[in-house]
């Protein structure tokens, strides 16, 4: 008596599974499961994602440019303020020298009796 073979041939089963999947995909494609309108909706979604990414990129670049402009302006203001402070301090030093000279002249006038009148 012959015994029926209980061996399972796994490679054949795997190949049959692949063929089943391919056939199922072909059948879905033939049935046109996605009507034209929904395919356009999917395309629009992909297109809007690309537009959103592009919009984000443009917004990011503009933000960087504005930030760079603001930082440049702040640096310009710091340099201008430093220049003004230097000018004011040099004026104060010259005024201090003038005041010291006037004090010396005043002391000379007070010490010399001929110049008092």
Oligomer: single chain
List low-confidence stretches.
Answer: none
Distance between the termini: 156 Å
Share of residues in helices:
over 70%
Order of helices and strands: HHH
Average pLDDT, rounded to a whole number, is 78
Strand content: under 5%
Taken from the alpha-carbon principal axes, the silhouette is rod-shaped
Count helical runs: 3
Q: Strand tally, please?
A: 0
Radius of gyration (Å): 46 Å
Q: Largest sheet, described in full?
A: none
By secondary-structure content and strand pairing, the structural class works out as: mainly alpha
Structural commentary:
This protein has 117 residues and is an all-alpha fold. 87% of the residues lie in helices and 0% in strands. The protein contains 3 helices and no strands. It has helices at 10-31, 36-111, 113-116. The longest helix is centred in the middle third of the chain and has 76 residues, at 36-111. The radius of gyration is 46 Å and the shape is rod-shaped.
Supply the key terms:
single chain, 117 residues, mainly alpha, 3 helices, 0% strand
Layout of helices and strands, plus pairs?
Elements: H1 10-31, H2 36-111, H3 113-116
Write a short abstract of this structure.
It is built from 3 helices and no strands. The protein is an all-alpha fold and 117 residues long.
């Amino acid at each position: 008596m012959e015994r029926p073979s209980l061996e399972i041939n796994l490679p054949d089963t795997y190949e049959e599974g692949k063929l089943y999947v391919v056939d199922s995909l072909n059948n879905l494609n033939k049935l046109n499961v996605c009507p034209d309108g929904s395919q356009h909706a999917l395309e629009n979604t992909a297109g809007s994602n690309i537009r959103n990414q592009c919009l984000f990129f443009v917004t990011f670049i503009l933000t960087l440019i504005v930030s760079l402009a603001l930082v440049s302006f702040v640096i310009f203001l710091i340099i201008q303020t430093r220049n003004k402070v230097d000018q004011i301090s040099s004026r104060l030093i010259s005024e201090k020298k003038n005041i010291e000279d006037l004090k010396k002249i005043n002391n000379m006038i007070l010490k010399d009796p001929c110049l008092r009148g």
